[in-house]
Design brief:
The chain is mostly beta strands. The chain contains 1 helix and 5 strands. A 5-stranded mixed beta barrel has the order 1-2-3-5-4. A hairpin with a 6-residue loop joins strand 4 and strand 5. The longest helix is centred in the middle third of the chain and has 5 residues. It is globular and about 30 Å long. The chain starts with 7 loop residues before the first strand and ends with a strand.
Length: 72
């Protein structure tokens, strides 16, 4: 995503861990998205497992894909 575009951050619940650092996340608004780990989370080796609360960043709220930027 380019720096001039706005993104939406939504809280959610990790339901399932998939191969390749992908996660199925159920958002608080009821939608499900596929999300990958943000680069800083990979660099600092922050573990995300099913059951964790996370913040997902998406270009718009209608998207089906996102990036996990924080573990709560």
């Amino acid at each position: 995503m380019k720096s001039d575009q706005k993104s939406v951050q939504v809280e959610g619940f990790v339901e399932e861990a998939l191969p390749g650092l992908l996660f199925r996340v159920k958002l608080d608004n009821g939608n499900e998205v596929l999300a990958h780990l943000a680069g800083k989370m990979r660099i600092y080796r922050i573990r995300v497992i099913p059951g964790d609360r996370v913040i997902v960043e998406m270009p718009s709220i209608e998207d089906r894909r996102g990036r996990i930027v924080r573990r709560l």
